[in-house]
Specification:
- By secondary structure, the chain is an alpha/beta fold.
- It has three domains: 209 residues, Rossmann fold (3-Layer(aba) Sandwich), CATH 3.40.50; 109 residues, Rossmann fold; 99 residues, GMP Synthetase, Chain A, domain 3.
- Helices cover 35% and strands 21% of the residues.
- It contains 14 helices and 20 strands.
- The protein has a nine-stranded mixed sheet with strand order 4-3-5-6-7-8-9-14-13, with helices on both faces. Strands 19-18-17-20 form a four-stranded mixed sheet, with helices on one face. A three-stranded antiparallel sheet has the order 10-11-12, covered by helices on one side.
- Helix 1 packs across helix 6 and helix 11 crosses helix 12.
Length: 478
């Protein structure tokens, strides 16, 4: 099994694979898929049972049935390939916020996710997978994104990276950054994590003090920070803005770029595979197809032609043998580019729909409007245990409804009280303590946008702003 110390060797192979073009990428993908499937059939009771009717030896992707998060989580102890890794043990590990970013069982990376399906997930990435993700970020992210002007800027002003993400739980973004800080003295000095749950004034003050030269975070959070920069309150000059965790729309990209005077680049990431795609200057996301496979499919899991938006996408993570993710329903709609990308990158190119949660614009008792970004309040709900789905619906300027689908094996009233307490604590921290939290009679609902689940839905029109001096408040990543 590889360890993070092999990251430079994997990085070299990533570079060679790209230079070899599609034939070289395909050879690596085929070899790694065969190895992953063979290991899963041998070491994972779940996959051994699922693939029992398949012939031995080489199989094609089309031979393998798709899987979804609920069935994998229900069979967690049979899904993993190491009997020492149990759901109870991983849940105990992730219940402790002090362990965010701490290596699990000799070097694995653990993260949690609710995702676009709304079902909570626990993901354990082995040491080789960690090494692959580190190499991909180095080679296909920063080496590809930083041009001469950015390198000169970093040389003049130093490397200081700010990660504006959800904190306090084992979500992938914060966990990955904290792991990097714990594993390197240099990273501990040059990388700082900033919580999107804190009030916007505090976040702006902290960023002004840190003066990052690389600004990373969710697109909605960076878009809000761009407003603060335009208003003269945020005074930073990053040489690069890097986004992940939500769909990056072109107007948002343009706004961030104009405010900070820096290029904006986007990574495609998920808890199930961390980093597996990075965009180019033409705003197409290039997939690391030598280490992961994404299949755009329709609602019957049949291939969607290039140039047509898919209903969902099946992910196969070739890097992680501890918890095999093979033809996993990711829930994202993607559009595959039908022709070579003008940037010259031979990696497959897609456009990603991704998350579609709404930002809420809530009113304080004094009439001030505060924007609450969806990933921030989503992270605030994460510590509530035994929730299958929870959904927030804004129904008025100072009213939200909570829809809850609790695990029927546990006390629904206790789960409700815990969820409300976490949501109320978040709102109070944003000066929104007077916002009414109403329990909905109906369960969480799927969205009409392709049947996806959205954790935050706005049904009320945005109220008019009472004063041009009103401030946005609470701010909202593998």
């Amino acid at each position: 099994m590889s360890t993070p110390s092999r990251t430079p060797l994997i990085a070299l192979d990533l570079w060679r694979a790209q230079r070899a073009g599609r034939p070289g990428l395909e050879r690596r993908r085929r070899r790694r898929l065969d190895s992953l499937v063979a290991h899963a059939r041998t070491a994972s009771p779940f996959y051994r049972h699922l693939y029992r009717g398949l012939p031995n030896g080489e199989v094609t992707l089309g031979d393998l049935p798709p899987v979804a998060k609920p069935e994998l989580m229900a069979a967690f102890d049979d899904w993993v390939t190491d009997a020492r890794v149990t759901r109870a043990d991983v849940e105990a590990f992730t219940a402790d916020p002090a362990r965010v970013g701490v290596p699990y069982r000799g070097g694995s990376f653990v993260c949690t996710s609710s995702g676009t399906t709304g079902h909570p997930g626990l993901f354990v990435h082995d040491r080789r997978a960690v090494a692959v993700y580190q190499a991909e970020v180095a080679v296909r992210c920063y080496l590809a994104w930083l041009g001469r002007e950015q390198w000169l800027g970093l040389a003049r002003h130093g490397v200081r990276e700010a990660a504006v993400v959800g904190t306090g739980t084992h979500v992938a973004g914060a966990g990955w950054y904290e792991r990097g800080r714990r594993g390197s003295r240099l990273a501990a000095r040059t990388l700082q994590v900033f919580s999107v749950q804190q009030p916007l004034d505090d976040l702006v003050a902290a960023l002004n003090q840190f003066q990052p030269t690389v600004l990373g975070g969710y697109p909605s959070a960076l878009d809000q920070l761009a407003d603060e920069h335009d208003a003269g309150r945020l005074r930073i000059r990053p040489v690069l803005a890097a986004t992940a965790g939500e769909s990056l729309e072109s107007p948002v990209r343009s706004h961030i770029a104009a405010a900070f005077g820096a290029p904006v680049r986007d990574a495609y990431a998920a808890s199930e595979g961390l980093y597996f795609g990075f965009d180019c200057a033409h705003e197409w996301v290039h997939l690391s197809s030598d280490w992961s496979i994404l299949e755009p499919v329709d609602d019957a899991f049949r291939p969607t032609p290039p140039g047509q938006a898919s209903h969902t996408t099946l992910l196969t993570n070739l890097a992680n043998h501890l918890q095999p993710v093979i033809r996993y329903d990711l829930g994202d709609s993607v559009l595959a580019r039908p022709d070579p990308c003008p940037c010259g990158n031979p990696l497959p190119a897609v456009r990603v729909a991704g998350r579609s949660d709404d930002a809420m614009h809530l009113r304080t008792a004094s009439g001030r409007e505060i924007t609450v970004l969806p990933l921030a309040i989503g992270v605030a709900m994460e510590p509530t245990h035994h929730v299958r789905r929870a959904q927030i619906v804004q129904t008025g300027p100072s009213t939200i409804r909570l829809r809850l689908d609790p695990d029927p094996a546990f006390d629904a009233e206790a789960i409700w009280r815990d969820l409300v307490a976490n949501v109320r604590a978040f709102l109070i921290a944003q000066d929104l303590g007077d916002v009414a939290v109403v329990r909905a009679d109906e369960p969480p609902q799927l969205s009409g946008r392709g049947g996806k689940f959205r954790r935050v839905v706005v049904e009320a029109p945005r109220p008019p702003t009472p004063s041009p001096t009103s401030r946005n408040g609470g701010s909202s990543l593998g």
